[in-house]
What does this fold into?
Amino acid sequence: MDYGIEVRDQEAVIRLRGRLTFNDHAKLRALIGEMGQNKLKRQVLDLSSLEFVDSAGIGMLLIAREEMDRADKQFILRSAAGQVKRVLTVAQIAKIVPIED
Amino acid sequence: MTDGTIQGTTEEAMQATGCRTRFAGLLAPGLPADRLGRLALALRLPPVQAPAGPAPLAVLLAGDGSAVPDSDTLWLPPVAAWIEPPAGTGASDPTAQLAALVADAAASDLYLNLTTATAHDLQLGGRLLAALSARHPLEGDRRDDLELALHEAVSNALVHGNLGVAGMKELSAKELERFSRDLGDRLADPVLAGRRIVVTLRIDPAENGRPLATVEITDEGAGFTPGPRASSGASGRGLELIGSIVDGLAIEDGGRRIRLRFRL
It folds into this structure.
């Protein structure tokens, strides 16, 4: 998995690319650090270029959400498609994290 | 139940003969030619330079990382087995050990036997799915779902089984850091990284025209007792996801083996 952060006026948009699995723990740690450091209140994860996510990947997204909560920031998942959208639905993640189209 | 009985009998008969796959050759892209020659002779399989033709081939993967095939073709037909040769520690003869693995492979339709060090970053779920799908085309959501089920089962065997890394319980960066550190430390431990993961896949004809795939994934870890998961942690969704996808799920050998069954 790779990611890029774009800081806009109202929100930071982090675009994830590739496959997010248990093997991406180091990248997720770095990403959580970067989201904490920028000043914006809204941290949006753009999932449109993410091709695959596993249960550990979902767990790491939930950790990111929790850390943003602690830092008093909003954490939003956006534009999930294909397998990623399917897994988020099956795992009922919308109950925990706001998901935008 | 007549069908079930007939199928059971057929299955037993096939298991009794022990042969589902008759290998026609041995590929070993990462091994020196003379070593491949010796192994091929001992295994009585002709060495092959590149996959060709319809007859099943077995690939030997060198465990030093140099020979992990980037090439997708090594994961597609006619290759039906992927084996990392035993290192030959201790008293037993590594060639005899390898011969035993090839015999196991012949009893399956697809077979994989690798160390954890080699397997952990190979995306085996996707590789297995590609190998399966090349034989029984799978598309769309079903393909995605089965890839996830295979990936989750393989990840569990490697991370929680062979490496003994506990799942992420609390939702915190600290817990993610702990997971990260444990995974790194244990992959660096030659004993744990040398533990094997074995995947066997069998495809049986079935009633209603849809073949039934049976996948068994075995690790060498401490095992576990399946139970209801705590609802709040970051880990623990894997088995549930698998259960929601496959037609049959069994945990055996004290949690060291998971068996998935699904219609193709």
Remarks:
- Strands of chain B lie at 25-27, 57-60, 79-83, 110-115, 196-204, 212-218, 248-252, 257-263.
- Chain B has nine helices and eight strands.
- The radius of gyration of chain B is 19 Å.
